[in-house]
């Protein structure tokens, strides 16, 4: 018995992997059914569905980028403190002194790439008409994922706390001032006036809700940090689970009938 | 003579590598074609060589084609791409020693002068239209390859311009350059596959995707593809991360407002809309409508054909609307907002210096002013001082009546007319609610280009201007 074989026959190995090596047809099926990570996939699939020129692998690439963002993001959290005192300096240190500071580059470029691949994935799904029944609802889930991806990117943009960051967020969040009814400079906001006292002011409107203050400051940093690291990723993870589950339940990757 | 030798010396090495990559691309293509069997375009007869001896070149490149014995060089696709690659191969060292191929300044100046929001928006629309109408021609791989080479060459030449490069090579803008090429490639790919399928459908055959409906095992066929994708992607991100440092500007300061102040690039289409619409539209209503509209697509598109394969002919309407919305109204506006909007959100050509003191006369006027002042030659209706709030509102409504009627007609009267005329079939199939939803979404989408055109032609500021209630449309 070779060394490899004896390892594969050990109790330890067998307790971890519930299947033999996928060398023959039977075990290639077994592996898909018994491995937690692989059971996301079906056992067999139409050849057309795995053609790179059909799906462009874009959904898969987006998912992989999400994983990259999660791993690099967790590593960055070890070094970054979301306070006015430290945020900028910690990023500076990541650039200049921290070993493996390249995590920041990977995280940032991965984020840009994820926005792009999400769009391309949507483009592919549209062009192949894959949103048509029975996949309508998964398209809707996808649109929410698209929104969340943009919000992830947007909340993360603030964290370096440099000029680029705060002004981009200022410009972006200023829009909320103009929310109809709920923004203090929005149409119809004046309607919400009780006894001559306006209810919607710059201290109570949609923009205040977004950035936690009257202008982008410490509260915003904290709010965006929590959303960026916990709130939105959890929501994305949940929706991704639904998204993938629906891909399977809706009959796998779309194809001509 | 170079405009800026110091700058040229800084881009020399990257440009050299850039051209080497282009060379490798073309030689790679040549190798691929050679393996598949070269295609001969035409023969160039060799003077004085009438017999089969001595045409080694022709034999070498024509190995898989028919060698002709009459002493002529066969010009094959392999030969052409070898030559193109060779041209890039020459450009690379030239760039490295500081003599890169540049765009003539006359060309740059013309481009600067010609470009503007109008030319960009209409020009891209015309380009998309031409590509769509003549898609059979443009999707031929060889034509697409020619255009790719041209685009990359122009890109390389433009990189010698400090203004162009300072914006395109800004770290956060690099992904958008990638986006442009990726979108170009994938649009080509999808159109190519759709053209093939449409031909087959016209001949009564099923789409190509159908031919591959035999089942294969996910292990190994899919999991290995995924593994390779992951490794390639990791390598790509590492190279990107090592090659390009993430930006970090000065520490934030709430008093030093940068000019221009830009949102992150993926929202710059929305910021560009601010030129035409107030924040409540550009920043709140239109984005929400975009999201709702996207979600509604599967419930509005009643066409059951074209599911699971690339096709254009079976779903032309949906296809065109989506491409217009995505490519023209989203991506082009992002490009405009990112690359061509400088200080004070003024427009700057791709080779123009961002001059913060550039002043553009803004003389936009409201529809109410056009109607009352220009048209009827009287002043705007205005409530007498100390009148009640209701009375003031009444006056405002009168003042803005032309716009309110126009906008009302657009959203209320047009849908029934559409239902009765061009969209008759849609209305019958969709029923009242779905049709109204679709019609209003389309009209909202159309509101942006319409406002743009109104701005460009009659300097229209707002159809409805009620600044008293922050309600400008
Ligand atoms: C975080 C973003 C997203 C991730 C990670 C993701 C992931 C995936 C993956 C892995 C698949 C399997 C097929 C493929 O790779 O193409 C898929 C399919 C699908 N996705 Fe997404 N997706 C995302 C966003 C979206 C968006 C924005 C949309 C549309 C608006 C969308 C709509 C769909 C639909 C309808 C399918 C089924 C397609 C088919 O059966 O051919 N997804 N997604």
Summarize the structure.
The complex is a heterodimer of chains A (257) and B (473). With 257 residues, chain A is an all-alpha fold. In chain A, 60% of the residues lie in helices and 3% in strands.
Describe the structure.
The complex is a heterodimer of chains A (257) and B (473). With 257 residues, chain A is an all-alpha fold. Chain A folds into 2 domains: 41 residues, no CATH class; 197 residues, Cytochrome Bc1 Complex, Chain C, CATH 1.20.810.10. Chain A contains 11 helices and 3 strands, in the order αααβααααααββαα. Chain A has a two-stranded antiparallel ribbon with strand order 2-3. In chain A, strand 2 and strand 3 form a beta hairpin. The N and C termini of chain A lie far apart (49 Å). By secondary structure, chain B is mainly α. Among the domains of chain B are: 190 residues, no CATH class; 106 residues, no CATH class. Chain B contains 19 helices and 5 strands. In chain B, the strands form 2 sheets. Chain B has a two-stranded antiparallel ribbon. In chain B, strands 4-5 form a two-stranded antiparallel sheet. Chain B is globular. The interface between A and B is large, with 100 and 92 residues. Strand 1 of chain A pairs antiparallel with strand 3 of chain B, so a sheet runs across the interface. The complex binds protoporphyrin IX containing FE. Protoporphyrin IX containing FE (HEM) binds next to helix 5, helix 7, helix 8 and helix 11 of chain A. The site of protoporphyrin IX containing FE has 26 residues of chain A, from helix 5, helix 7, helix 8 and helix 11.
